[in-house]
Amino acid sequence: MEVKKSLNNEEVKTPGQVQDIRKKKTIIGANVIIMILISIAIFVFASYINDRNYYRFDFTASGKYTLSSKTKNTKKPRSTGFYNLTTGT
């Protein structure tokens, strides 16, 4: 099979070959866009999970930043609202 070459020594492509190349480039471009969107979705999901389940670890040998058991057992204060008896608001 003989390959035709142009004046600058490049292979001459038929219209069918050009369409095949365009299809391949379109498929590759679509694949790149899909992978970028999947990566963004994974990052957003991981950030959402991390935000909802925040926990801090203390890896110091002396436990410098660890709360005592007495502090851990205290209850969180309830939010308090103030009511004005004279105006009713």
UniProtKB/TrEMBL annotation:
Organism of provenance: Candidatus Scalindua rubra
Highest taxon of source: Bacteria
Span list, region Disordered: 69-89
Transmembrane residue ranges: 27-49
Protein name: ABC transporter related protein
Keyword annotations from UniProtKB, A to Z: Membrane, Transmembrane, Transmembrane helix
